[in-house]
């Protein structure tokens, strides 16, 4: 069976098409809502915390999550609630899905999964756009997480039925989602980008049916894997999952633990604008590196992990001792941070696809996707005490 994506089912003689554009678009659509929620984290919490109708809810979250500085007297101009609250809402549902779904998800058709993801993402934007309380915004973020997590797991599994060029298109598209989401949030009003997103989600659902033959559940070689075989595969994936998790722990510890605190009062951008552009430049780095698979491949994933940890330590000391002169240097660092994170993601799944046996590949791709989500979740938990400490100064 041939599709607009380059390549066909492994083991089937098909003609390869020349482009991966539809796969790129699919990756963009899948991660769009997730990225917008993170880009909007600072504004969501600031807006809700300042509203009279949500004072009690905000105070509760402030006590539960941070014990924060509601008077905003900190030299770091802190929100009462750390943006890690949005990060955890955006990643914990994804983590639960990725830990459990690989064992049972093969029983659900791909078409049903895509439709469900589209509905969840659309609902997330409606909830956040019209929310009147912090809990309602967080619920919307959770819906976005469910959509992105299930979609990523499903489409990574589905790429194994095609040539590896499809994985490059998907990875680049997910990087494009970062830039598109951050820029659209920064540049458009809430109502405008909400309607734009709804149109994009409809395209996502359509593309999922056109790009891939979504009935490939019946085309698995040599039958389904046993539970014991799946556990054995997971054990063999440690060399991929641990470095990926470490990269994303350091990466999101920076993004949701440090970025809000890297504030330069005398800069020409406001605090909210600085935060949004940190997120945007980080996503530009992700896009570039996730699109680099056709040009460069990096097998030494531990090196990427070590470099990302160095970034996190550097910015942690920069927040504490405030030795960075201005935001321009931070812009450069977060761009580099995005390059490392995107490279770790796309190379991890490329080499899993390359080095895993045909019969194990579909499950391995889904199971390994837990690495980044686990790292992000741990980073969100670590960000709360860090935010509390710095905001108390």
From TrEMBL:
It holds the Pfam family CLN3. Its main location: membrane. The chain crosses the membrane at residues 110-128, 134-155, 167-186, 192-216, 237-255, 301-321, 327-351, 363-384. It is found in: Endomembrane system; Lysosome membrane. InterPro entries: Battenin_disease_Cln3, Battenin_disease_Cln3_subgr, MFS_trans_sf. GO terms for biological process: lysosome organization; regulation of intracellular pH. It is a multi-pass membrane protein. One of its GO terms (cellular component) is lysosomal membrane. Keywords: Lysosome, Membrane, Transmembrane, Transmembrane helix, Transport. Belongs to the battenin family. This is Battenin. It comes from Sparus aurata (Gilthead sea bream). The gene is CLN3.
